[in-house]
Amino acid sequence: MIRLPWDNMSTVEDPCQHWSVFRKISEPSTGTSAQISILNLGDVPRIYACESIKVQDLAGNSHVLCSGIDLNPAIDAQGKDALSIAADLREACVTKGGSSQIPRSIKKDLMSVAKILNINWVERGIDNDARLICSRGAVCPRKPSCYQQCEAR
To answer: Which of 30, 49, 75, 82 could bridge to 122 as Cys pair (CB 3.0-4.6 Å)?
Structure first.
């Protein structure tokens, strides 16, 4: 489970725009979207996989449903060093401006985990670029920060 870093969206002034749930809200799309993300908890990088879908309730109001999983425990269970893999993936994303194609060696490790867990949307997420996400814009790990880029516009 990925616990969102806030309990009430109305109290968050700087949510990270790279969370799948926010992109699904703001982008017109159909179907689902799977995403591999790297989120620092303190200084420890975690690899998450999630899938989001935009739905409408009976009143016609749009909502986004999102489910996710922390992959670090599953990576460790396979005898791999999850922190090292997450740090390498984080570095790949940082050097590419915040998102990056998943390097082949990491893709292989993640695919093994996806197959063992039997979670198809983890596999689909591996085919997309991995994204750095943060709990708040003020702690954005991207260089330059997303919020610095937005302020410059």
So the answer is: 49
Rounded to the nearest 10 degrees, what angle do helices 104-117 and 82-95 cross at?
130
> What does the pLDDT profile of the chain (153 residues) look like in tens digits?
445 544 444 445 555 565 555 565 666 667 778 889 998 887 889 999 988 888 888 998 877 777 889 999 999 999 999 999 999 999 999 889 888 999 999 999 999 999 999 999 899 999 999 998 876 555 555 555 555 544 443
> Structure pTM?
0.74
Instruction: Write the CA distances from 104 to 14, 52, 108, integer angstroms.
Output: 33, 25, 6
Calculate the alpha carbon distances from 32 to 13, 35, 52, 73, 140 in Å.
27, 10, 6, 25, 26
Encoded tokens for 30: 């159909």
- Given the DSSP bridges, would you call strands 32-41 and 130-133 parallel, antiparallel or unpaired? parallel
